[in-house]
Specification:
By secondary structure, the chain is α/β, with parallel strands linked by helices. It has 18 helices and 31 strands. The protein folds into 4 domains: 107 residues, Beta-grasp domain (Ubiquitin-like (UB roll), Roll), CATH 3.10.20.30; 72 residues, Ubiquitin-like (UB roll) (Roll), CATH 3.10.20.880; 192 residues, Nucleotidyltransferase, domain 5; 109 residues, no CATH class. It has a 6-stranded mixed beta sheet with strand order 16-15-14-17-19-18, sandwiched between helices. Strands 30-29-20-21-22-31 form a 6-stranded mixed beta sheet. A 5-stranded mixed beta sheet has the order 2-1-7-3-6. Strand 20 and strand 21 form a beta hairpin. The radius of gyration is 30 Å and the shape is elongated. The C terminus is likely disordered.
């Protein structure tokens, strides 16, 4: 029903926004007036077909209106043609830029027409991303050049952008300026402009075009993982991963810092290696999505501070010793071409900020994704990798720290260690009587005791992938199982008083036969050596000590939730992680894995430029605790080396403990380890 001044009630769903709109206004203008963001690249010129909406018909008592298709102006032939293609002839749909208000109406805006779409990642905690990228496309019609008119084509484009899109004060990137005149003339003075951060024209394309793409990358010490995303819809089009080629120059961070300091040209070599790796990864992702490398218009990178320094060509030598000074703690924005990245010529790279010397942009990405600063629970968030980042806290306070776990969790420094790839042993169970291992390798659904080999074995029983090595989750489980079976003692040493055919002795050092030669790809047995066990002990002790240090600083004895991030964290069995002492005590149902949260944080910042400002705020709010010079960390580290982390969380495992539980090496125990060990032993007896 029209009001006295000729206005009608217009309601947009699912947002529920409503208001009085003058008769004759387009639905697109009505949406803008009411704060409803509807996609429109062409600016209402019936070109892009992105502003499609549905007119709901009927009485809506809840809203007090009657809505009908006749309450908007009828469509003309041009709109009908677009609708026939975009909406499969569904007469309930209209183009918001072409339908004029003629009565009370209720409008449904479908997901694909909303300017801020939502992408929900189904994981331990559902993640919602409002899509609002830093780059966007607009279609403009520009005045023709005329004799005696001296503004220049860039001046005419500026005027068109100001008039048609209210965009002022823009600059233009030099490569875009070079393409401007040919684009205007081949497009008959109509062009699609790509804008970066609403302040710079980074491309001009003739006529109407669409398609914006971005790359979110987590540059890990060992692995580089990237997601190619559609910046209009938020969809992940392709995911690629590669080994970080800098491993050649050192497996851990300090080795790479040392390489840059002691080798002439060392920094340049590592910088060139990561740039080439990023170009290769991006090219594979683009190819998988049917795009080209130059179609990447924006990128967000995260990584630890050493990785980011090397990426930017900054010598990381100051990170090698106290006071561990960063070149900059702030976010960095740089043109991709300045780094040697072969993306779109105008593309920018945004690097999230760091927290401190050894807690970098990757941890900020995790915080952006998991949002512990919005939670009430006391949460321990651990990003497990070559250098583990640990965060403890809630909405009241957050503490962070870095623990030098080394690359053992990722298969390095393990004699038969390997990356998580087909053939890698990822799950292990050891019979406590026979000491024979059952294991499962990546690429096989069955456990090894279900395999049959040899010429007489049926094809369906033969494994597709024989064992080739042990990945991170496998080495965690096998060390825990070796302890439970009594193969190793609480101090991590093989027990010389229990000789067995599954244990090979090299002098005074034992090695456990995990897989026999007929179970492996090369016919040689896969062993777990004394050094392997020791490296896992050192890595888990560093991680646990970092967590305990933060708990002491926070003044809490227990945490309410533990979140394991990182690719490795996703594959750890929480009960084995807690048994070995990677993480403090926590009910198992409160321990969850969230995958590559750092990469997700990069993706969030890529798809929503507002989150970049939030990341900067988080990075400055977190209190960093320096483990390297804290004596409490050293004490906790020494106390956490023995196995197990004695806990009451494993009643179903206690019956399998075949050896007395040891006291810590210093006799005091760690975190009540000795006292709880005595309780478990008493119950077992």
């Amino acid at each position: 029903m029209a009001t006295a001044n000729g206005e009608h009630q217009v309601i947009f769903m699912p947002s529920g926004r409503r208001g009085q709109v003058r008769a004759g206004e387009t639905l697109l203008d009505a949406a803008r007036q009411l704060g409803v963001e509807i996609e429109s690249i062409c600016g209402g010129r019936l070109t892009c077909a992105k502003c499609r909406v549905r007119i709901e018909e009927g009485q809506f008592a809840k809203h007090g209106i009657a809505s009908a298709a006749t309450h908007v102006s009828p469509s003309d032939a041009r709109e009908a043609s677009l609708l026939a293609e975009a909406a499969n002839g569904d007469g309930a749909y209209r183009m918001a830029c072409a339908a004029h208000v003629a009565g009370d109406v209720l409008i449904y805006v479908p997901e694909e027409s909303r300017a801020h779409k939502q992408v929900i990642r189904k994981s331990a905690t559902a993640r919602v991303i409002d899509v609002a990228p830093a780059v966007r496309q607009v279609y403009v019609e520009v005045d023709r050049a005329e004799l005696g008119e001296h503004r220049g084509d860039w001046g005419r484009l500026q005027a068109a952008l100001a008039q048609q899109w209210q965009l002022t004060g823009l600059t233009i990137d030099l490569p875009a300026l070079r393409r401007l005149q040919p684009a205007l003339r081949s497009g008959n003075w109509a062009v699609t402009v790509i804008l970066g951060n609403e302040r710079e024209v980074i491309d001009v394309q003739p006529g109407y075009k669409e398609g914006l793409y971005g790359l979110a990358v987590d540059i890990g010490s060992t692995t580089v993982a990237g997601h190619l995303c559609d910046l209009r819809t938020g969809e992940v089009l392709a995911t690629e991963a590669t080994m970080n080629p800098q491993v050649t120059y050192g497996e851990d961070l300090m080795s790479r810092v040392s390489y840059a300091m002691t080798n002439p040209g060392g920094l340049d070599k590592m910088h060139t290696a990561i740039i080439e790796a990023l170009n290769g990864l991006a090219a594979r992702a683009a190819r998988a999505a049917g795009r080209q490398l130059r179609d990447i218009h924006d990128a967000v990178f995260v990584g630890n501070t050493t990785m980011i320094h090397i990426l930017l060509g900054i010598n990381p030598q100051e990170l090698g010793g106290a006071p561990f000074a960063l070149a900059t703690r702030d976010a960095v924005d740089v043109k991709a071409r300045e780094l040697g990245l072969r993306f779109h010529p105008g593309a920018s790279v945004h690097v999230l900020p760091a927290e401190a010397g050894h807690v970098g942009a990757d941890n900020v990405g995790v915080l952006l994704a998991e949002e512990p600063h919005r939670q009430d629970e006391m949460t321990l968030l651990v990003d497990v990798g070559t250098n583990a980042e640990i965060v403890l806290g809630n909405r009241q306070r957050l503490l962070s720290a870095s623990s030098p776990t080394g690359p053992a969790f990722e298969g390095a420094q393990i004699r038969f260690g390997m990356r998580a790839a087909p053939g890698a042993i990822e799950r292990v169970r050891i019979d406590p009587q026979s000491w024979v291992a059952r294991f499962r390798v990546i690429g096989e659904e069955r456990w090894s005791d279900g395999w049959q080999s040899g010429p007489d074995a049926p094809v369906e029983a033969q494994p597709q992938h024989l064992a080739a090595g042990i990945c991170g989750s496998g080495i965690i489980e096998v060390v825990a199982e070796m302890f439970l079976a009594g193969i190793i003692r609480g101090d991590g040493r093989f027990d010389p008083d229990r000789p067995h055919e599954r244990v090979i002795w090299e002098g005074k050092r034992g090695a456990y036969v995990l897989a026999t030669g007929d179970q492996t790809a090369n016919g040689q047995p896969i062993l777990v050596t004394q050094d392997d066990v020791r490296n896992i002990q050192l890595a888990k002790a560093a991680l646990y000590a970092g967590a305990k240090l933060l708990m002491n600083r926070m003044g809490v004895e227990r945490v309410e939730r533990i979140t394991l991030a990182g690719a490795f964290g996703s594959y750890i069995d929480p009960q084995y992680a807690m048994l070995l002492g990677l993480i403090p005590d926590c009910p198992l149902d409160r321990v969850s894995a969230v995958g590559n949260a750092a990469g997700d944080g990069a993706r969030i910042a890529l798809l929503n430029h507002h989150k970049r400002a939030e990341a900067a705020e988080i990075a400055r709010w977190v209190t960093y605790v320096e483990t390297a010079v804290d004596p409490q960390f050293q004490d906790a580290f020494v106390g956490a080396i023995p196995i197990p982390h004695a806990t009451d969380a494993f009643p179903h495992l206690e019956s399998r403990l075949a050896a007395p539980l040891p006291r810590a090496a210093n006799g005091r125990g760690s975190d009540g380890r000795a006292r709880r060990a005595e309780r478990i032993r008493a119950r077992r007896v």
